[in-house]
Amino acid sequence: MNAQEMFGSIGYRQNIENGYIKFENIDECEVIEFDLEQKTIWVSQFLEAKELNIDELKAMNKQCEELGWL
Known about the structure:
This protein is an alpha+beta fold. The chain has helices at residues 3-9, 54-67, and strands spanning 13-17, 20-25, 30-35, 40-45, 48-49.
């Protein structure tokens, strides 16, 4: 399973725009955003810091692996 499928299985949808890969869970107002230039990850819920669950962490690690960051 690739990262997009992993995120999809936990309620996120993918958007790619302006050098970012963004996964959004609209129902929970959650965003996990990968900055492709800076190689950073921003995670928020209602624009505040968000705790990650293990499934989100696994999907994030898979995305980093697919990007060649790991």
